Known about the structure:
With 478 residues, the chain is an alpha/beta fold. It is built from 15 helices and 17 strands. The chain folds into 3 domains: 2-53; 97-189, CATH 2.40.50.140; 195-477, Purple Acid Phosphatase, chain A, domain 2 (4-Layer Sandwich), CATH 3.60.21. The protein has helices at residues 2-17, 24-29, 33-44, 49-53, 78-96, 108-113, 157-164, 222-232, 239-246, 276-287, 317-324, 359-365, 367-370, 380-390, 449-454; strands at 63-68, 118-131, 137-143, 146-152, 171-179, 182-189, 206-210, 248-254, 295-299, 329-331, 336-340, 349-353, 419-422, 429-433, 436-440, 462-467, 473-477. The strands form 3 sheets. Strands 1-11-12-13-15-14 form a 6-stranded mixed sheet, covered by helices on one side. The model is unreliable at 56-60 (pLDDT under 50).
Amino acid sequence: MEQQLIKKKEIVSILLRNNILVNRELLRKLSEPRIVDEWHRALLDGTPPAKLLHPAQEGDSRAKVVWEYDDVPKKRSVQDFVDYFNARYRQIHKILSGRAELQNLTSISRIRMKKDKERCSVIGIISDKNVTKNEHIMLSVEDSTGTIKILINKSNKDLYTQAQDLVFDEVIGICGQAAEDILFAETIVIPDIPIQEPKLAPEETYVCVLSCIHVGSAGFEHERFNNFIKWTCGEFGDDTMRAIAKKLRYIFACGDLVDGVGIYPAQEKELSITDIKEQYAECARLLSQIPKHITLLLAPGNHDVGRISEPQPRLLKEYAKPLYDLPNALLVTNPSIINIHAGEHFPGVDVLMYHGYSFDDYSECVPSIKHSGTHISDRAALVMRFLLQRRHLAPQHTSTLYIPDARYDPLVIERVPDLFVAGHIHKAGHLQHRSATIVAGSCFQKKTDFQEKVGHDPDPGVVPVINLQTRQVTMLRF
Length: 478
């Protein structure tokens, strides 16, 4: 009892030194030994006092990290790459093996032992893809037992079109007629997410998606971002926008919070803030103006401090401490899955959050996306749907820098998300795929010389907002 009293006095003393009013309600909380122990331990660990009073997981805004990458630093070897791809195969094999289309599922080594034609199915990872002289598609697919050739006949137009979109290193199921060391494909099965009813919140609640804020860039759109902040406070926009702002509870900022330093040659000429710590301090100052009942979910991108290889750990506290000090901020890895708005009679909405560094590759290498009739800057949502169907955020080996984790492939989408949010492309977009709402955030940076060179057409200051009760997506312009 005496020890509890000492801890309680120390807590009150720290709160008062930080200009926090210690009222009756707060003293009632401190009458619980569990609260006293938790707060005392947290304050000794350096947790800002304000964060104890306004945790992101409490109040109207409810956010809980369901999954994020637990980085284990170690020296990597060639075997780690082998184990990494084996882990990917096992994870997606588990998803595919229950599919009704894959009848008579067997291993590749068993197919190669068969002499007579027989209908069977295999699950394998694509190691090669070619077009034959007769314009059929020939795949090389392997599992842990061996490799086999898969022929997709051009006369089967639907199957041929589907096969054109296949990329290296993705895991697929194939059903067809086997003859020695070749399988004549009749059906291609991709992991995809199941068809089910979307989860809808019981009350009207909004989520908005930001990406690529690029604080510190000479091209940072100060006025647009200030308008956005005013909107969250109910001080900007028409009646409809203000009505949405009143019910806004979550903001997902999907990476590139700052412009970074040394990201590309001669970047310093395009910076208004040349110190990385000052960039994060300014970012935190701007975000601190957002009302505290709105939870901020902050993830890193390729311009942020730390490694570019994915998964990216949380932002380094050494550089981004001002963001950690925000009482309503929850910093997460890239990618991560966050459950929001769970209640007594509602399981909440699972949000897959990813920056999108791999997106550029699929805009060009997947025929149905490349020839979709949309500009490269308008393809983000199409790419996101493609990756959701593949149940992997970067299936092709060269599409992103990655850490070969021997334990499992952290870029596999094992848990089916309700929302899939990302950015990177600097232009907003959205679509619905089965039970998932796909939303790409825009940016708050003017068009750069690099974007001009590669043909990107960013649309700064466009913020998608999602109504959790209807899944309707509205684009707000600032």
